Amino acid sequence: MKIICIGKNYRPESPGWKAPDEPVIFLKPDSSLLHKGNPFFIPEFSQKITVEAELAVRICRLGKYIDAKFAHKYYDAFTVGLDFTAQDLYDRLSAEGLPIDIAKGFDGAVVLGEWIDKTSLPSSETRFSLQRNGQEIAAGNTTDMLFSVDQLIAAASKYYTLKIGDVILTGSPAASVPVSGEECLTGRLEGREVFALRIK
């Protein structure tokens, strides 16, 4: 199983931001996936953990060099995913020009909610949100993506063979937010709760 992550897929409000010409792609290992029902424990190696909520897509067919017009045949479900970052470690490694993999791909750095069949969701747009202790802190809509799900699948399949069970995290619509112990994060997809996660 691969967890394929997309960066810079929503246009921020900050001035001077330049949209990428093609999807920004990076990977997280399968060991970064937090097992369902477990809380997220803030790791000892970081003093600043941040989180982003993203629409997640489940791959259902083997594919390589997939044309965007056929990409809809290669995924069958959506959920909300969380992308955790050890922000202090990320900032230090970035400043030194070093790989940032350990700051993004540590154990437990990805949470996936309950999968919902795509046929039961709106075909024109899909909305998702993240709440912290009952208050919404992020919301997104697929219509706001710079690159659609089909375009992301086409782009990723140029570099990686997509396999059944692979996941694509399609990018965050909002800036990352810090998390701390004893918080509860709740993900919703089209109003349906798909996960409730305790931070320890």
Give a written overview of the molecule.
This protein has 200 residues and is mostly beta strands. Helix content is 12%, strand content 34%. The protein has helices at residues 87-95, 101-104, 149-159, and strands at residues 3-7, 24-28, 49-59, 75-86, 110-112, 116-117, 127-132, 135-141, 167-169, 177-178, 184-189, 192-198.
Layout of secondary structure:
Layout: E1 3-7, E2 24-28, E3 49-59, E4 75-86, H1 87-95, H2 101-104, E5 110-112, E6 116-117, E7 127-132, E8 135-141, H3 149-159, E9 167-169, E10 177-178, E11 184-189, E12 192-198
Parallel strand pairs: 1-9
Antiparallel strand pairs: 1-2, 3-4, 3-9, 3-10, 4-5, 4-6, 7-8, 7-11, 11-12
| Largest beta-sheet characterization | 8 strands, mixed
| Overall 3D shape | globular
Rg of Cα set: 16 Å
**What's the helical proportion of residues?**
10-25%
Oligomer: single chain
Give, in order, the helices and strands. Answer: EEEEHHEEEEHEEEE
Summary tags:
8-stranded mixed beta sheet; 4-stranded antiparallel beta sheet; mainly beta; 200 residues; 3 helices; 12 strands
Quick overview:
By secondary structure, this protein is mainly β. The chain is 12% helix and 34% strand.
